[in-house]
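Sat 14:20. Reprocessing the chain from the morning session after the first attempt stalled halfway. Input below, unchanged.
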Amino acid sequence: MAVSQGLSGPISARERQRGIVMVAASAVLWSTAGLFVRMATLDTATLVLWRSLFAALALGGLAVARRGPKALTGVVRSGPVGALFVGTSVVSSTAYVLSLRLTTVANVMTVYAVLPFVATAIGFVWIGERVTRRFLIAGGLAAAGIAAMAGASAGAGDLLGIAAAFTMTIGFAVQLVAIKRHGNVDVIALNACAAMCCVPVVLPFAHLLIPTPMQLVACALYGTMTTGMAYVLALEGGRRVSPGEAGFISMLDVVLGPLWVWLAFAEAPGLAVLLGGGVVLGSVVWYLATLPPKDDADYAAPVPVRAEVDLAG
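Finished this time. Tokens:
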């Protein structure tokens, strides 16, 4: 049976396929971010505050229910590993909201689409990951679609939003590689702690008045679905596939994110964005549809097992 490395040992082809499904599901959930940001109509700091509170409550409660308080205290005791995950999560999730506030969802998704290439580069340098020919072909097609989208979407006034989106992309790419390098981490507890750490960061800049019921609903959905479960599924799936593959499958978000906002708020993308998005979606569908079911030399090369940090406490 073909295997790739992750967690603390080999991962079977079945587990790899489970990982692909998890990452794809996370992309669908993550694509709703722009929709909830538009629904909330709050400034960036206030939105991050309430989103983080809901995410911390949902994920923290789930982590404690599964393993007790040691799930959260284990993150504190994990030292540099926990700090890496929590720090990159705080930066990337905050930058994501900021980017959605400063530019269009289509622009943010266009920048985010470089994720597989950033993750592949970091994975090559950090853990020696290799990629397959199929990945390169599909990635090349997706890059052509991204170029078509970018050519018609970016304006001078969007530069700060694009910079924030790129910061978010780098942060998430680091997490995808780190989950392969440190496979035993508890991603639910980590993301709960990351959400908690966001609160004091944005609190001095947020409005402390209670939002309207509709705004609270938007923040709750954003916190539990997009920040919470999407991150957990992405990182759990990222244990089972290469960082480049995880980033590539996540490009489903590139197409779906602008679609939800278009349908709900008439933030219509141009023809070039639609055509480019179709190419991106088609490349992802082709890649997933042609995955080898079992033994195949086309699988990503194994990654040497390294010393892992167990956050079980």
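The CA atoms of residues 3 and 236 lie 17 Å apart.
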